[in-house]
Input
Amino acid sequence: MQKKLLGRWGVFAVAATLAASVVTGCGSDSEDAASTAEGTIGIAYSLGGRDVPGFNQLAYIGVEPLLAENPNLELIESQDNPTATDDQRAERLRLMAQKGANPIVVVGFTYAAALGKVAPEFPDTTWGIVDDSSVTAPNVHSIVFKEEEGSYLVGVAAALKSTSGNVGFIGGVNTPLIAKFEAGFIAGAKAVNAKIKVQSTYISNFPDFSGFNDPAKGYEAAKGMFENGADVVYAAAGGTGTGLHKAASELKKWSIGVDADEATYPAHADYVSTILTSMLKRVDVGVGAFVKDALAGNPTAGVKTWGVAEGGVGYTTTGGYIDDITSKIDEYSAKIASGEVVVPTDPKA
Output
């Protein structure tokens, strides 16, 4: 599974390998400390849980090697639900801390308000939150990504593969986070073809999170874009993206996945021939680095940002559909890593 998630990193293979070494180990002092660690790791998943391939499962993959290497480590897991309130999320986090979990990984910005309440109540517990940097406390580590950079790369791929000069973006929920995906995708597509048309839509608006798990609406949105001339559509929409892949398969168009290699998902087995690529968001690497440092007693408070240069985002080549353009995509990757290209985070910029 790890091999499938790596995808193609082009000129950043070395950087990705170094980043991944925080998970697999490289003989460091941190590794020595972690290898003899005892205790409990906690993971509070967002919607869907770890058994569904993607964002949440990547968090588990990040700690799985540590659990395998350390028989004295245990894992406590919990899962969010669509109707949960901030108070209910806070109580879930309290229960994990009270059971002795330390460190605790909180997956997703939906936990921000809850963590802001609970972290001060448990000052000796080390907390890590994925996709949010608003919780500032001496015991909180924020794991954030430059989603716009990875989305830029698949935007480049979309424009290079498009024959109609018309592509699309589907966001699950209209939030600043998902807007970063849209902004990067648009910028990447326009870097290749300044005149390309980019259709954009969101399935739901904050605070309605149903847009992250509505394949039927994803299907209708994608079908509408394809019928309106798009021949490549990218979805940053969680489970809703399955609807995109179905529509692309039926209409013989291209779809682009997000977070992990969606062409490897069992649920997408019937759609692999039209999944062009997926934008990789290495939640496993970010979570693994945080947990290893926490177990070793290293300082973790603050924000760690993972972009192209850090091996935190990238793209996949499963199926070989973009083998003819990877060298061009990697040229853009190099420009992002060097700072020559600064990817926007606002789609209206």
Notes: Confidence is low (pLDDT under 50) at residues 1-36.
